[in-house]
From TrEMBL:
SMART domains: PBP5_C. Keywords: Carboxypeptidase, Cell shape, Cell wall biogenesis/degradation, Hydrolase, Peptidoglycan synthesis, Protease, Signal. Pathway: Cell wall biogenesis; peptidoglycan biosynthesis. Belongs to the peptidase S11 family. Removes C-terminal D-alanyl residues from sugar-peptide cell wall precursors. It holds the Pfam family PBP5_C. This is serine-type D-Ala-D-Ala carboxypeptidase. GO terms for biological process: cell wall organization; peptidoglycan biosynthetic process; proteolysis; regulation of cell shape. It comes from the Bacteria. The active site is at S63 (acyl-ester intermediate), K66 (proton acceptor), S123. The keyword Protease applies. Substrate binds at K229. The keyword DNA-binding does not apply.
Length: 388
């Protein structure tokens, strides 16, 4: 009996050691991003991690910090708090930023759209601070907002100290966290209209015209790459969070700590090559597609539309497509009014053969206000008349 017990315990120990190895076997067998300190390969819609290397190692992110800066800018535009054609007056503080810059002058006025281009294409530190000051009043207040957003995205290994990525003690992130921020930014479809531009001009036709040229050369030299953000400092070395789309499948890559631009671009390219050569996706629902219409008696409109927050897809190895795909919808039972556009009210779960593939937030398609007393009275009387 004792011998059988020892054997059972030994088997448990063996399985406890072997099981995680099996789970990571595919990832570990890939020889990608050899010249990077840290790397990540993720599919955009599903969030599936295809490859990672030291993905949770805290490293200086350099100008990849601007992905979070741009995320907050796009959020403010989406909320209507910021307009692309709004003119922003440049402060002395913003104009004094060193490093990568577009040479904004104190007192100059520039549109929000041109400032976004300056950040997305030329990595302008001055443009980043100008946008931060416009949104939050000061760069420090904006940085507080950045760190709050990091908490909201459940990033455990990221801390921001500025809106630019200039060297700062205590500023760090990881390949994993940068991929998550990029995933959030890419929910705003028009961001790639800026990050995909290879060259453009500020103040075109004027004496102080300035040539913008993309710091991410893969936008020009790798088919499908349309973003996202480079980074370099002597401490961080060469970094790049990139994204590419092919056959409706979008990939996100992160490379941190490469010794040269060539090594950084090579690591990015080989991860993208691997993803597009070996994986496919299947679209189940479009972003914003109505999943369910829910009656809500106390709402201004009696029926509210529940939609997907982003595209719902499955991703699979080309030789192993999923079968028996099923979707499950869960809507919160106690919805309290008012509800803001984009507020999560449920979850859409995708499963295949009882294996969970993804969870997608379900949100309200528009602001939902509480019904007035008169509206509720009319609705009640109408329902009473129908009951007769």
């Amino acid at each position: 009996m004792r011998t059988i017990l020892y054997l059972f315990i030994s088997l448990l120990l063996i399985f406890s050691i072997i099981t995680p190895v099996f789970a990571q076997e595919e990832n570990q067998s890939l020889e990608l991003a050899a010249d990077a300190k840290s790397a990540m390969l993720m599919e955009q819609d599903t969030g599936k991690i295809i490859f990672e290397k030291n993905a949770n190692e805290k490293l200086p992110p350099a100008s990849m910090v601007k992905i979070m800066t741009l995320l907050i800018v796009m959020e403010e535009i989406d909320k209507g708090n910021l307009k692309k054609n709004e003119m922003v007056r440049i402060s002395e503080n913003a104009s004094s930023m060193g490093g990568s810059q577009v040479f904004l002058e104190a007192g100059e006025e520039m549109s929000v759209e041109d400032l976004i281009k300056s950040v997305a294409i030329a990595s302008g530190n001055d443009a980043s601070v100008a946008l931060a000051e416009r949104i939050s009043g000061s760069e420090q207040n904006f940085v507080n907002r950045m760190n709050e957003k990091a908490i909201e995205l459940q990033l455990k290994n990221t801390q921001f100290k500025n809106a630019t990525g200039l060297p700062a003690k205590g500023q760090y992130s990881t390949a994993h966290d940068m991929a998550i921020i990029a995933k959030a930014l890419l929910q705003y479809d028009d961001i790639t209209t800026y990050t995909s531009i290879y060259e453009d001009y500020l103040r075109k036709g004027k004496k102080n015209e300035f040539w913008l040229v993309n710091t991410n050369k893969l936008v020009r030299f790798y088919p499908g790459v349309d973003g996202l953000k480079t980074g370099y400092t002597s401490e961080a070395k060469y970094c790049l969070t990139a994204t590419a789309k092919k056959n409706d499948m979008r990939m996100i890559t992160v490379v941190m700590g490469a010794d040269t631009v060539k090594k950084r671009n090579h690591a990015t390219s080989e991860m993208l090559d691997y993803a597009f050569n070996h994986y496919e996706t299947e679209q189940l629902f479009d972003k914003g597609e109505v999943i369910k219409t829910v009656p809500l008696l106390k709402a201004e409109k009696e029926h509210i539309q529940i939609v997907t927050e982003h595209n719902v897809r499955t991703i699979y190895k080309k030789e192993k497509p999923y079968e028996n795909i099923k979707t499950y919808i869960e809507i919160d039972q106690d919805l309290s009014l008012p509800l803001k556009k984009g507020e999560q009210v449920g979850v859409l779960t995708v499963k295949a053969n009882n294996q969970e593939l993804s969870k997608t937030p379900l949100i309200v398609a528009s602001d939902i206000k509480e019904a007035s007393f008169i509206t509720l009275l009319k609705r009640t009387l109408g329902n009473m008349s129908k009951a007769r």
